[in-house]
Amino acid sequence: MSKPSIETTDIFKGAFYLCMGGDLESIRIKNGGRQIATFHFSGPELSRHDKAYVGGHALVNPVVFRQALNHLRDVLFERLRDHDTELRHRNTTARGRHENDSTRNHRSHQAYR
Known about the structure:
Distance between the termini: 74 Å
Radius of gyration: 22 Å
Largest sheet: 3 strands, antiparallel
């Protein structure tokens, strides 16, 4: 039987889920003008914790919450760096060596000897 899961784009809600015993399963990055990260969590009673969070009845240790928030930021920024590197690599290999040389297209003024 699989654990209950929930997704959110709210990093503060994600930190709350971590504080309440949730496990970060994955981070998905969407590119559409702006990069949007979706955090996927699993764990027991996440829907109950979500209701408490949305209803404003959630209580959490602030030190643990800050640690969870910092952890999510670290994981997110690492994932974004990997994602950007992967996109740059894909664009570079798709265009070939000479298309990447931006100065090559502007050499008509140079005389060949």
